[in-house]
Amino acid sequence: MQLISLRPSCNSNCSSLSRKKENVSGGRLLNHVAQKLKEEPVNFLKTMAPPLVAAIIAFSPVIYPPVSLAQTIDIQKGATLFRQACIGCHDAGGNIIQPGATLLLKDLQRNGVDAEEEIYRITYSGKGRMPGFGENCTPRGQCTFGPRLQDDDIKLLAAFVKLQADQGWANTETNGD
């Protein structure tokens, strides 16, 4: 059997390789390969370290923090609540009643309601033409005549609206209700 190996043609940092043919019979092949590896060690770590480190950094959870199942469920609940209570006026983050009061980030910032707490407060008590949805919303004329939302639901809704505003209202659909 004939074994062809690649080995540097010079002892310095040359990039050209030469082919060396050696005759090796069947049973001695493994011993011959092991001996060649001892003579010409392949520095695996030196050649593979940079791409491995790059891959580890690229896929690191520090760079892309994982979203927990609970967070995903909360986002889906918030989306469902939004479709049930808000989408009639605020489809895709807009506002068909009052165009300057959209749920887009620039309008929320301009109107001083770009924090979840402020979105919660307005959703609970209402403001201007927007009715309140809180269980204890007053005065009655400022509150919705439809079903009221519990505090936890309004918190989920406020978190969903803030998340969507931060992401530019790219996707308000979920895979289930």
TrEMBL record:
Superkingdom of this entry's organism? Answer: Eukaryota
Q: Write the record's keywords in alphabetical order, separated by commas.
A: Electron transport, Heme, Iron, Metal-binding, Thylakoid, Transport
Q: What does this protein do?
A: Functions as an electron carrier between membrane-bound cytochrome b6-f and photosystem I in oxygenic photosynthesis.
Against PANTHER family, the record matches this protein to: CYTOCHROME C6, CHLOROPLASTIC
Q: Which GO terms describe its molecular function?
A: metal ion binding
Q: Which residues form the Cytochrome c domain?
A: 73-165
Q: What is this protein called?
A: Cytochrome c-553
Q: Which Pfam families match?
A: Cytochrome_CBB3
Q: Which family does it belong to?
A: Belongs to the cytochrome c family. PetJ subfamily.
